[in-house]
Specification:
Keywords: Cell membrane, Hydrolase, Membrane. It is an enzyme of class 3 (hydrolase). It catalyses: [phosphate](n) + H2O = [phosphate](n-1) + phosphate + H(+). The longest helix is centred in the middle third of the chain and has 25 residues. 48% of the residues lie in helices and 17% in strands. The radius of gyration is 26 Å and the shape is elongated. The termini are far apart. With 505 residues, the protein is an alpha/beta fold. The chain contains 18 helices and 14 strands. Helix 6 crosses helix 9 and helix 12 crosses helix 16. The strands form three sheets. It has a five-stranded mixed beta sheet, sandwiched between helices. The mean pLDDT is 91. It folds into three domains: 112 residues, ATPase, nucleotide binding domain (Nucleotidyltransferase, domain 5, 2-Layer Sandwich), CATH 3.30.420.40; 178 residues, Nucleotidyltransferase, domain 5; 141 residues, Hypothetical protein af1432 (Orthogonal Bundle), CATH 1.10.3210.10.
Length: 505
């Protein structure tokens, strides 16, 4: 009698601007069972200086926290852990320093996710942990940014991330813990100005239920309960009473509000200012609180990818349609690239499997830039893939996609390659070579299938083996491949073209 398979355990870490959170869950049947939560106040955003560099003290606080989290994750395989970093590491010019030092402490990749991706994942976390009440507005005030999403069911419809958070606004408007009506009004006005560009869009879309998530709104709810509002519902009138109570003191450490913890006091006024401005800008009548947030979104998305579909497939398909990609040609290039890569990486590990997946999407989207113009379209494609909103993709993955399509043709100016955090440049070189060959071999845009092709790779030296007599029947394509040889040679690579069994170059 075989032993029943052990339940799969998965973990998600949210590297926030104010706090780091870790949640561990067990996959039980068709649901997730949360088995532990961990939170550490790190105040990462307070370490950003005027040049947007993180100071060493903030970096060390973050690393100490990750080292503690790593103790709980011993034995977890990489595919069962997801770590997402948000606003502060998006902004920090020296984020690579933090990521490099973190590698030695925690053996899992850290993704720096765009603001809209953060908003989408927050919504997913709320949607999975909150009963469905029709269309929902979800607001999450973090340390450095505020995410606002309208969605139905598990599907976000509108998502924005605004650069206003309780840590960053505390530094701007309540320095050294100073509280006054003038400072509160300035913070509220600044937040309302941030909301101006999206308020009408959100009001037109409408919602049935407004839901707040994460620490700032949770702290406000707990104080309101302490003040006698047992249902914990946040309303404009209750926020006004809360602000009135806060303005009775002049320093944050003097705040004596029921339910307010000491570690939340320094950034509480800024959080209240932002939420009151959001209420006013969107004319919100009442808001309830949800325990779901970014880390729960990460967990549920891991489980969805494990059992259901990958949202990145929908994103890539939608983008191909948006930019009128020739789908037949994209499919030809994708299939050729995957065929070649499978020959040079017959047994890829987790990292190379991830990269092989990105290669497929890069091939599918390599011609999006043609919608702008043919000259330099590879550069246009790279720009679109790097700077578009792409649900499901983190910033590193978008950078990889942009890099692959940037180097699909023409000269190989490898010194212009961007810095990467999760992957290494040497990981991308085989993908670039593969995509270039796939693009070149399908240069005639013909529906006729390619002949049997073999590729052999020895680091920077590759052999492309084609059927005997092939060159005589494909002179134009052979000329293109010889041009490709020259590009490779200038980059310090070697491409040999062979006709089985005789070497032709």
């Amino acid at each position: 009698m075989t032993e029943p398979e052990a339940p799969r355990e998965i973990a998600a870490i949210d590297i926030g601007s104010n706090s780091f959170h870790m949640v561990v869950a067990r996959v039980v049947g068709q649901s997730l069972q949360i088995i532990s939560r961990h939170k550490q106040r790190v105040h990462l955003a307070s370490g950003l200086d005027a040049q947007q560099n993180l100071d060493q003290a903030a970096i060390q606080r973050g690393l100490n926290c990750l080292a503690m989290f790593a103790e709980r994750l011993q034995g977890f395989p990489p595919e069962n852990v997801r770590i997402a970093a948000t606003y502060t590491l998006r902004q920090a010019r020296n984020a690579h320093v933090f990521l490099k030092r973190a590698e030695a402490l925690i053996p899992y990749s850290i993704e720096i996710i765009p603001g809209t991706e953060e908003a989408r994942l927050i919504y997913l976390g709320v949607a999975h942990t909150q009963p469905d009440n029709g269309r929902k507005l979800v607001v999450d005030i973090g340390g450095g940014s505020t995410e606002l999403v309208i969605g139905e069911g598990f599907h976000p419809l509108i998502a924005y991330s605004k650069h206003m958070g309780c840590v960053s606004y505390n530094k701007l408007f309540f320095p050294k813990g100073k509280i006054s009506s003038k400072r509160m009004a300035a913070a509220q006005l600044a937040a309302q100005q941030k909301m101006e560009s999206i308020a009408n869009t959100y009001m037109r879309a409408g919602w049935q239920t407004a839901i707040g998530s994460s620490g700032t709104i949770k702290a406000i709810r707990e104080v309101l309960i302490g003040m006698g509002h047992q249902d914990g519902v946040i309303t404009p009138e209750r926020l006004a009473l809360l602000i009135e109570a806060m303005l009775k003191v002049k320093q944050a450490d003097e705040l004596d509000l029921p339910g307010l913890t000491d570690d939340r006091k320094p950034v509480f006024a800024a959080g209240v200012a932002i939420l009151s401005a959001v209420f006013k800008s969107l004319d919100i009548e009442e808001m309830i609180f949800s325990d779901g947030a970014l880390r729960e979104g990460l967990l549920y998305e891991m489980e969805d990818r494990f059992r259901f579909s990958d949202i990145r497939v929908r994103t890539a398909t939608a983008m191909a349609e948006q930019y009128n990609v020739d789908l037949a040609q994209a499919t030809r290039v994708k299939e050729t690239a995957e065929m070649l890569y499978s020959q040079i990486e017959p047994q890829p590990g987790l990292t190379k499997t991830d990269l092989a997946t990105l290669l497929g999407w890069g091939a599918q989207l390599h011609e999006v830039g043609l919608s702008i113009s043919y000259p330099g379209f590879h550069r246009h494609s790279a720009y679109l893939l790097r700077h578009s909103t792409m649900p499901g993709f983190n910033l590193e993955q978008q950078t990889v996609l942009a890099t692959l399509v940037r180097y699909q043709r023409k000269s190989l100016k490898l010194e212009e390659m961007p810095e990467l955090s999760i992957y290494k440049r040497k990981h991308l070189y085989p993908l670039i070579r593969t995509l270039r060959l796939a693009v070149a071999l399908n240069g005639q845009r013909s529906d006729s299938p390619l002949p049997p092709i073999t590729v052999e790779a020895n680091k920077e030296e590759w052999r492309l083996i084609l059927p005997e007599g092939w060159e005589a029947d494909n002179r134009l394509l052979a000329a293109d491949l010889r041009q490709e040889q020259e590009y490779w040679q200038k980059a310090g690579w070697q491409l040999h073209l062979c006709e089985s069994p005789l070497l032709i170059a």
